[in-house]
Please model this.
Amino acid sequence: MKYSLGPLHYCWHKDEVTAFYDAVAQSTVELVYLGEVVCSRRRELKFSDYLQIAHQLRDAGKQVVLSTLALVEAKSELTELKKIVDNGEFMVEANDMAVVQLAHEQRLPFVAGPEINQYNLQTLKLLQKMGMQRFVMPLELSKDWLTKVLADKSALGFEAEVTGFGYLPLAHSARCFTARQQGLSKDDCNTACIAYPTGIEVLTQEHQSLLRLNGIQTQAAQCTDLQDYQQDMREIGVDWYRILPVNLSSIDYAERLIANQPARRPDSISNGYWLGQAGMHHCASTGAD
Model:
């Protein structure tokens, strides 16, 4: 099993994004997903900027995949997606079926991202016929589900990737909760989310962490960390362990796992979905690697 760095879900200043990927270029991470996946109104980086970073990472020996929006709402967004699919150099990650269709029409191999509704083997085989080379397991599914899907891994002909670390996106909405919280409209948001580099933590009335708001995206409050289950993943045939960037320490997390060393955990973690339980739960491992 190898380790990938998923797309950045937060809105950071351009110089912070550039510094982050400069560090990624110097790391031992093999596969990097790159691009805006949450909101097209985030314009700190343009497509040309992402392409420049992609070239930098490729020159550093990385595999690069261009990730795309999870929620396509406007014709202008579809135009931008066509530009990404037509890039002519890099594979794309489809998080909306519009991108699957565009890639299929261009005969471009693609990764089916975790936002695609791929809940059974029949769907995965259909996506494979359309050009899918790898799928990222939907975030709320479990080890048991994946074990059944990969029961005859050698006959499948596509790779499997599991999100093992990061704040999991639970839902996307046409409304922007970050802008609304600031009393702004989505169409005139002033990129309010740039002030919250890891989203806005939402607490219950009892002051317990409940959710994390990130623009139009609602995330889990706890950070998922599945490092204790790496051996399980290897045994059932997982090809890639995905790490969602939170900050520069996410690179160190990846480096330590690649070196077969335990990584430092966040203060509040969860692993419930992997174990077929409520996602926010953290259950003690019966046997770490």
In short: Residues 78 and 98 are 8 Å apart (CA to CA). The chain has a mean pLDDT of 94. The first strand starts at residue 2 and ends at 5.
